[in-house]
Each structure stands twice: as C-alpha cells, then as structure tokens.
Design brief:
Length: 471
C-alpha cells in the first residue's frame, strides 16, 4: 500500500516515505504550537520596548506562569486519549454513530475535565502569587520583584480559561474534529498585540499600566479564545451534545481516572519546565542584565523547541501505529527520521545564532545595553548545543510514549534534569564563576543525559516488543 487519503503505511518503510509520513503528521502540530508561542513572544518583544528592567521582571513572571500552565496542561492531556478510546469502543460494538452509552461516557469525561481544570487553575493562580512573594527569600533582585509582582497578579486569573481551552482542544482532537485551532491561535496573537498596546500605553480611556498591562492582556486573550472555541463547539452538531460544563455532576471515578493518567504527564512536563524556572530564578540573582539576557535567549530557543514538539507527537503516532500493526521494527526508521529532522532544523537555526547574534537579539532587546547583550551573545552560542540536546530528548519522550511507556520518561527526566543538569549548572555558575552561562551549560548537560537515556530505553522497549511479536 502507498500513502494516500487513507493514511496507510507502505510495507517497505524507506527513509523518504517515513519523512513524508512524519511531516504529514508533525507539520500541523508544530504550526499550532508556534502560533501559541507567538503569544509569549509578542509579550517579550513589548516588554523589551519598556526597559531592560521590565524585560527581566516580565520574563521572570512569564517563566513562573508557564511552569504552572505546563503542569496544568499535563493534567488534562490524557482527555483526548480517553475520549478517543470511548469512541473506539462504541465503533467496535458495531455502532455507526456514538451510542447513548458512549455519549454519556464522553460527556462525563468532558465535565470532569473541566472540574479538574478549574481547580488546578484556581490553585495554580494562588500558587503563582505565592511564588512571587517567596522569591524574596532566595536572593532575587528586589527591584525586579517589585516590578514582577503586579504582573504575576494579573497573569494568575488567566490560568483557568487557559486550561479550559486545553480541555476543549483535547475533546475535539479525541473526537477527530480538531476545528480551526491554528486560526484561533493566530487570531489570539493579533488580539494580544492590540490589548498589550492598549494596556501598556493607555488609550480609549484606559490608563497606562505599563508591565502589568501585559499580564492583563494575556489573561483576557485566554478568556476570549476559550469563549470563541466553546462557541464553535456548541454550533457543531456532533460535538455539542456531549459538550458539558456541568462540573457539579462529575463522576468521582472519572475524575480519578483522568488524574491517574494526567499526574505522571504533568510530572514529566513540569520536570523540564521546573528546571528552566529554577534556572531563571538562579540567574535572576546575578542581576537584571543577566535575567534579561536569559529571558530573550530562552524565548528564542522556546520558539524552535515547538518544531521538535511537532516531530515528537508525529513520531509518537507513527510508532503507535506500527506497533498496533505488529510491525514494530519499522519504528526504528521512524526514530532515525525524527532525530535527523530535528537535527536539521536545529542546525539551520544554530547557524543564525552564530552568524548574526546581535541582529537576532535586536528584535527583542535594546542591544545598546552592553552588559545584557554580551551575556545574551554568549548564551546564544551555548544554545546551539543546548537545542540539539533538547530536541533529541523531547523526540525521545514522544517515541517512548508511542511505545506505551510513559513512566520511564518521567524517571529519566528526573535523573537528567535534577541529578545531572542542575548540579552541573550550579557547579559551573558558582564554583567556576561562569554565572548565567554556567547555568546554561548545566541545562545542556542535563538535556543531553536525558536524550541518551531515553533513546537507550526506547531501543530496549522495541527489542522487547519485537521479541513478543516473534514468539
């Protein structure tokens, strides 16, 4: 068979054919991820227009927000799998459309997910503000924290609609009706830019709020995009009957099932995000120029990281398909293609980092600030290697997930990030006196360790699956 409208896989899985399959699955995911990151990218750009101090404070606030947002998203990521499983069981029973029993099951999954998202968003918002106060006791610059606190308070309410949006996203994907996610996200970027300008500088009778205005704009964007997405689902004849916001009617057993799957995913997501959050806090103790430089370079690498997210999800789907077909051996070619595609993207971006660092940095910050610019140029050079490692470990997590192994990923990330990455970073930053660049060297070492362990575990997992198939 050849790849056509049915999306089937050819018996002989060449590199070229696998590349097409992977691109077909990965590109839409990567584009949507990139559009979402454009929100924080525009925030970073507009913070840089205010001042270096605002960039440092706003970057710290966004880092903490992203930490909690990422873990919250992990809690509801399994919703798509649960919905898809319910639909599959209904189809296996011979129904051409979802039965009443299947509809009830999906409806309960959706409203239980909204309950989890609401509680996680409220608790996360309180924790976000508490973290801001707690940073005063770990050596953060007092001036930076004074600027960051109002923004943290403005960002906190946005966690709830942000997680609500993710619930709908997983629901529509699980139902194989993903709607216009990319268009919604692009629209949100345009709205975000407009609201940022209004709240930062003041217009239409609204006072100039400066940095906190960016936080207010971000929270409003999350609310608006949720309402747009919810409206689209309610007008869909297939999705509307099972779309329930009646959180008070959630089944405790369903809530426990979602959490049982979601907590390990949240742990895996949070492990990496936590390492970057801790890194930002430590770098903040080296002064505003160092934190501003870290904020800009971290945002640049985060943009590129979304491509590897797409490749990771696409390769995960392919591996699951091959294993389901009893052709696990083809997953080895999938891994080869995924890693090579990720490496090509990172190599191209890395060349730009090395050849035109100040031109790139000038898009986000005032390069006349020699202290911040000097640090940022150094971080960009380190980021070339860091992104190879980060892309590889992210793809490795996806490959293992496709092989139905999620617990190993969590354990490996704990080892790579916290047993290797953070200690090496602290050693380089303080004992060797490298400060911010030292922490980035530690990040790179931790990510590389995780990548190697993930690939090794994936190979062993495939060996076991192939042995079972033969027997």
């Amino acid at each position: 068979m050849t790849h056509g409208s049915t999306g089937t896989i050819a018996p002989t899985q060449s590199y070229r054919r696998t590349s097409r399959e992977l691109a077909y699955l990965s590109a839409p995911i990567a584009l949507t991820q990139l559009a979402q990151v454009a929100l924080t990218t525009t925030d970073t750009v507009m913070m840089g227009l205010i001042s270096i101090e605002a960039l440092a404070a706003g970057g710290l606030a966004i880092t903490l927000f992203n930490q909690l947002r990422t873990m919250g998203v992990g809690l509801v990521t399994a919703v798509g799998n649960l919905v898809s499983g319910a639909v599959g069981r209904g189809e296996r029973a011979g129904a051409q459309t979802t039965t009443s029993e299947t509809e009830d099951e999906i409806r309960d999954i959706v409203r239980s997910s909204f309950l989890i998202a609401t509680v996680a968003g409220l608790l996360g918002g309180l924790l976000l503000v508490a973290l801001g106060y707690g940073l005063r006791f770990v050596g953060q610059d007092a001036g930076v924290l004074d600027m960051a606190m109002p923004m943290l308070a403005a960002l906190a309410p946005g966690l709830v609609p942000c997680l609500w949006f993710q619930v709908i996203r997983q629901y529509t994907v699980g139902m194989r009706r993903p709607k216009a996610l990319l268009l919604i996200t692009i629209a949100s970027v345009v709205i975000n830019i407009g609201l940022n300008w209004v709240f930062i500088y003041g217009t239409f009778g609204i006072p100039a709020l400066g940095l906190p205005g960016i936080g207010i704009a971000t929270s409003l964007v999350y609310l608006v995009t949720f309402l747009i997405f919810a409206g689209m689902v309610r007008r869909d004849e297939t999705l509307a009957p099972m779309f329930s916001l009646a959180m008070h009617r959630s089944n405790p057993g369903t809530v426990r099932k979602i959490l049982r799957l979601g907590v390990p995913i949240a742990g895996t997501y949070g492990s990496e995000a936590g390492l970057f959050s801790v890194t930002a806090v430590i770098i903040g103790s080296f002064g505003a120029p160092a934190l501003a430089a870290h904020t800009v370079v971290n945002q640049l690498t985060y943009i590129v990281f979304q491509v590897s997210v797409g490749i990771s999800h696409g390769s995960s789907i392919l591996v699951s398909r091959f294993i389901g077909l009893g052709e696990a051996i083809k997953s080895r070619m999938t891994a080869k293609v995924a890693f090579s595609h990720g490496a090509i993207v990172v190599a191209c971006v890395g060349a730009v980092y090395l050849l035109a660092p100040e031109a790139l940095l000038g898009l986000f910050m005032d390069t006349s600030d020699e202290a911040a610019t000097s640090i940022a140029v150094t971080l960009l050079a380190i980021a070339v290697f860091q992104q190879f490692a980060d892309s590889a470990q992210n793809i490795g997590i996806g490959l293992l997930r496709g092989a139905e192994d999620t617990t190993s990923s969590f354990a490996i990330t704990l080892i790579g990030y916290w047993v290797v990455g953070l200690p090496v970073g602290l050693l380089c930053a303080y004992w060797l006196g490298l400060q911010a660049p030292g922490m980035w060297i530690g990040l790179s070492c931790g990510l590389l360790t995780a990548a190697v362990l993930l690939l090794r575990t994936f190979r062993k997992r495939l060996d076991a699956i192939e042995a079972q198939t033969v027997s």
